[in-house]
Amino acid sequence: AQEEDAFTVTGLVQNPRGSSQLRRVEATVLLFDSRGTMLTSGRAPLDFTALGAGDESPFLIRVPVTTAVARYRVGFRNADGQVLGHVDRRNLESIAQRQEP
Question: What is the pTM of this model?
């Protein structure tokens, strides 16, 4: 959601079935303008501190920004800062499409 002074991303993430427990995972977001230039980034912890195999957690990241955001990229990191692989399962209608100038 683009607001006057911030951009907010909400979502739900699932730790895959058959995987090990994850603790203190953070959601990250990178914000881009219409030319593909990165504007800023933000991060926030998941709502749940621990995720067992198959568990889900909501998340909310609010990033202060006054420039229009054309697209964004969400990722996840573990407690040590290591990037966690993930599969984006949003439907195509909810994914911001790049606008050609």
Answer: 0.81
